[in-house]
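Q: Structure tokens for this one, please.
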Amino acid sequence: MKLRILLSTVLAAAAGVAAHQVQPPQPVPPPPPPQQTEVQLVISGPTGGPPKYGVPEFLALSSDRETVEAARTVADVLFKDLEFEREFYLIPRDTYRSIPAAASIDTPPFDRWLELGADALVLGSVQRSASGGLQVRVKLYNVRTRQSVLAREYSGSAANPRQYAHTVADEIHQHQRALRGVARTKLTFSSDRDGERLGGPIENRSIQEIYIADYDGANQRRVTVNRTLNITPVWSPDGRAIAYTSYRRGFPDVFVSFIYQGKLERPANGTDRIHNFLPAWSPDGARLAFTSNRDGNSEIYVANADGSGLRRLTNHPAIDSTPTWSPTAQQVAFTSDRSGSPQIYIVGVDGVGLRRITAESYCDRATWSVAPFNEIAYTCRSGGGYDIKVYDVATGTSRQITFGEGSNESPAFAPNGRHLAFTSTRNGKTQVFTIARDGRDLRQITNSGNNRFPGWSQ
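A: Here is the predicted structure, written as tokens:
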């Protein structure tokens, strides 16, 4: 039974760990209020279709190599960020490479863009600031009305030009679609890619470290330095900490790493007899749900984020594990084999109202969308492997979004509920992928080693 295998895996490794401080992402200052000349107008597309966007190369107003490369990076990443949500049709760049670059982002060649059928045009410029950082200007135009509908200017560090693109993409999605974009969000996952470099398994125990990355897989970097098993990472809602299961003391326990401060906490207070694993943050970050055997059997417990107020949520001889919170924090979904095989159940945070929501032969690793969709994604057995299904809480119906290409497991929703991260063996090793909630737009995020248990920041 795979539920027991998962728990035995969590209970099977040991070694030491050290908190590893990560440099925080370079912040991009908030945009100024809309300019008086800015027209608050949503750009529409053809009837029944999305608006067509042109995103040409940004102008490099400084001639040094770093600025030229930064301008190219911002435009390239912005194109992909806007494409990700599928709200706009991004005109292929090869189509408009013959259009001369505008002398300024304030003077677009509208006629040429109209010939291509563009509805919207994003122009930008990048230059060095007096302090050595970057100044980035961006304008979004309605090509048909020849009006600027969004104008922004940013200044800050030159260390990570991608962050400017992510910020612009999220602003455009919010401004034009009232949509919360995910370009500035991050993924976390466990990886064994360091096992060989660090000397391989210790006493036949696997080495897995916690990594973080941008939502699209860029900037992957390790946040634990443990030479032990570190798995099931989840972001705190404020993005400042990651809770995960680690064997740094020789037994599984829940740790919270404040990755930008280098601080490590152990709210579940495990011992060699009390094992804690599979943490899940409440939507407000005030509480943690996790699995523990402290009363002799694997049950779901809830505690405040600092470990106080501990109470037991489930009470059954079967194994209860992998909790996930509802968007309202009034319910918890979890896996239990109390019916004979692992299935997904929902229970109120007061311990009442238990109900089973799945009926397949095997179901595990539920994750509850924090967005208005109110859906629960989970892993289910499918043929010789596993696939991802999504359960609609309102209708009680499920739909499948992966279909037998390798084993597909451990789903995690994006904060807007429109995408999921998950792991798959479809290309050989276990890697992290993202996919839209309708099963389209599959993208591979990791490539090195085996990577498991993704979590998506808010």
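A few notes: Residues 98 and 289 are 56 Å apart (CA to CA). Residues 1-5, 8-19, 32-38 have pLDDT under 50 and may be disordered.
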